[in-house]
Each structure stands twice: as C-alpha cells, then as structure tokens.
## 1
Amino acid sequence: MPKRILQGTVVSDKNDKTIVVKVERRFTHPLFKKVVRRTKNYKAHDEANVKKVGDQVSIQETRPISKDKCWIVIEA
C-alpha cells in the first residue's frame, strides 16, 4: 500500500526531534457548493532538528514512532 505524502507549514518546533505541521485541505461543500478550507495538525519526526517555524515541508506516513507521531519529514 502506498504511503501518503502531505505538504504543510511548520507551526511548532519546540519538541526534541519533533515538529508540528499544519496541513490544509480544500474541498467543495456538498450542499452549498462553496470551497471550504479545513486544517489539521500532524506531529512529524525531524531527526536532525533542522526545520523551523514557517518552513514548507513534506511529510510521509510511516510506522508509529510514539503515541501521537506516525509521520516523518521527507528531505526534498
């Protein structure tokens, strides 16, 4: 099964080897036919602690690393 890849913005880098990435998705509302934006935060593993707040990153789904963390940062 292919692993999902998402793009987002780093909103927090305060944890050691962990960043919080805000991912926005857009879709058309089924009833009102308007474009709706929804955001979700994902915790991602950043081994080298190089990503800072405001950076655009790609994250990839992986095995669970901790209780909340099952994404890793892709170096691209």
## 2
Amino acid sequence: MTLSIRAVSPADEADWCRLYAGYREFYREPADPAKVQAAWRMLFDPATRLEGLVAVHDGVVVGLANWREFPDQLSVSTGIFLDDLFVSPEARGQGAGEQLLEALAQVARDRGIAVVRWITAPDNATARRLYDRVAELAPWVTYDLVPRASSAAS
C-alpha cells in the first residue's frame, strides 16, 4: 500500500470523522456523532493546541494521529503527547501506524522535542506489537482522577 502522511486539513472532515468514530468504538465509547464533531473542531481550535496527521491512500484518509506538545518540567524539555492513533481496519498491517509514528518522530526531531509519549489499553495487543518494535515501554503507571461534586453538608 502506497501511503502519504501529511497534516490534517479541513477537507479531511468526512474521512477523519469516520475514522474517529471507529476509534471511539474500538475503545468501547458510545457512538456519539456530536462528540466526534466536537473532537474534529478541537483540531482547528488554536486554544486546544492540538495538531493532527493523517495517512492517505488513493485520496482516502486511512489513519489518523492527534497530538499536542507538553512541557516536561522534570527533564526541562518539551514532549509530544500522542492522544489518538487509529488506522482503519482495512488498512491495518500495511504500515500506516508505523508511518504515522515515524512522521511524528520527525516532527519531534524538527522541533527539537525530546520524546513522543502515549498510552494504550493493556489489551490492545496488535498495536502493542508495533509500539514494542518502535518505542520503549515507559516505567509510568497512569491514573485518572475524576472530579466529583462536593458532598459537604450545607
């Protein structure tokens, strides 16, 4: 499969949204076109500081990578956090994921960024085979703190 990797553009909306809906489904998130559209808009909202790459085959977007820079105070450097990486089922195993990761590594090199970091589900075995080949498993454990309403008595 011959692929090109490039920055996402407004013209990619239909393909990107189709892929992002598949990404949400893969992670067992409910189908929600409003959330897919909100995620799409975030890519073009300067306040979010998100950027995106797409893998294109024969004019069709078959993969996406959404990312943002972050300051790393411990190393006193900047990193890239890869929020989302997804390749359409029909294009999997043909190099799109690896090419998106390599393009992101090139962005990091070009900008003098120290690391590209991401998380994935522990049971995402197919993707983890790729990740284990191209990156190092980080020693960090991830937590989510969900803010809840205060239960203080009035």
## 3
Amino acid sequence: MSVTVRPAVATDAESWQRLYAGYREFYGLSADEQAVERTWAWVLAKQHGITGLVAVDVAGAPGIVGLANVRLYARPMRASMGLFLDDLFTDPSARGHGVATALLVAVAETAAAAGADVVRWFTAGSNGPARSIYDRVATLTPWITYEMIPNKGTE
C-alpha cells in the first residue's frame, strides 16, 4: 500500500462518512447518521476551525483509507498556538500499512505550517494498537482529563 495524505474534498463524502461511523462505533457511540453528516459538513466547510485530512492508497484502493480532523487552539500560558487532533481513524482493512503514521506526519506538517508549537490529542487508555504508534511519535503527558456537563453546576 502506498499512502498519501491530502485535504478532504467533497467527493470523499461517502468514504469519509463510512470511516467516521466506524470511528464512532470503535469508541462505543451509537450509530447516529445525523452526527456523522453534521461533522462531515463541518469538515468540508472548515467550520469551527476544523481541517479534515484523508489518507488514500495511491496504489488503487477506492475511497479513503484513513482520516484525521484537526483544529488550531490558543495556548495562553505559552502565548502560542497549538494544533488539536480531534479524530484519527484508519480503515480496519488498511491497518498495519502506515496509514496512521502518514496521517500523523501530515498533522505535524499542518501544525508547523500554521505556526503551532505543539500537537495534542487524547485517546482511550485501552486503545493499545494506536498507543503503540503514538508512543513512537509523541510523548505521553501526565495530564488528567475532566469533563463537566454545562448547566449542571458543581453539586
């Protein structure tokens, strides 16, 4: 497999939506065609600062074989910008062929071109295969992630 990464374009819709639905399923989210379509619309229009990257097999596999969605964010304590990797997913049939690594290289290049000084993301602790790739290209941080539901207060 010979992989190249490029920005997502309108003709990627069907492949991208199939992969993104698989990504949601991987993380235990229920099937939600509206959520997939809404996210695709954001990617295509670059809404909310999202840039969509896709990996294609230039040797002939139809459609896309991987996706990554990124967005810039401000880093006030550093007075700099960072790039956040929201989503990274490889088609199960293309795993082990360098797709995720190619996407991560493209993400790093996107960050550098935008003047960002770091790329950040998080993943599930149980996502061993992806973490083995991440451990080769990035540094695991000591930060713990919290989530708070809006309008729930601090009961």
